[in-house]
């Protein structure tokens, strides 16, 4: 009996061990599929950041567009250009628009358009123009949103640019600018001029400074090279001057939110050279009508593209003159009443008011609208 009891207990122990091993094995089998599923999860494909090249068709004109900065003013110039080409050439005009952003990217895009044998490069912005001019001496290059083509080295003279580069100059009338400031800000004597490293910006600052100083203003320069030095320049200018003067430099255009933050907090009036910047970070603006500069560039481009119908434009030789003088009389003054209210300024001289969202200071920068047709009348002078 005793031996039989011992054998029974041993059998129970063995059976428990077998059941334990089976449970462990079952546990492992349940975990395996989870591991396999985790290993088999497909990776999401990366988005292609570069749109494909446009297939060229015979009988059409292809313009590769380098938009140095994706901002309102540059877009307005592009719209004017496109409207004029479409009106004249219809669907025979095909634009390939890509964003530059920095010098390297602008150079890459210029070479891309050359390799694709586009009929023309439209360079919107100083860096875009400089890199396009470097990239080719045969494909026509049309410039927009550039202050002076001689200063940038893209043209021999203003009357006869020579080579393959031409365009429309957008240097604002500096005499009218400082007069506008004196009327809107009668107590402002010291002007802090904040600008970036573009040669066009330096040229504009030198022009404005010379004429403003002759008129009795004290002009102090604050040059910035990157985001950090721009903030420092803005803060220092707000402390040392009565108002700020900003150029249409790519560095500034890319940091309008920061400009608004720094200057509104210190209740300092900001004067910009274009209304697009004024709508998002400035108080006052007096500059050219960018849509009209685009119209003019479009008219010049049609002449270049169709000069010898049926031949590639690169064989035409040279482009027409820049005709910067046609932009005279298109400058208009504007004000931003939302920022005005925030810094304690009132529009007492009936300056045209920009269409600005009421929540601009709390995140409404993308909702900024366009002026009415009356406000867009670039042929009217002054206020």
- In whole angstroms, the N-to-C terminal distance is 120 Å
Question: What is the general shape?
Answer: elongated
Structural class: alpha/beta
Q: Any guess at the CATH architecture of the largest domain?
A: 3-Layer(aba) Sandwich
- Number of helices, counting only DSSP H or I runs of 4 residues or more: 12
How do the strands line up in the largest sheet? 7-6-8-9-10-11-12
CA-based gyration radius? 31 Å
CATH superfamily of the largest domain: Response regulator
Query: What is the total tally of β strands?
Result: 12
Identify low-pLDDT runs.
1-7, 10-40, 42-48, 310-326, 365-383
- The total number of structural domains is 2
Label this structure with key terms.
383 residues, alpha/beta, Rossmann fold, 2 domains, 7-stranded mixed beta sheet, 5-stranded parallel beta sheet, 43% helix, 15% strand, elongated, disordered N terminus
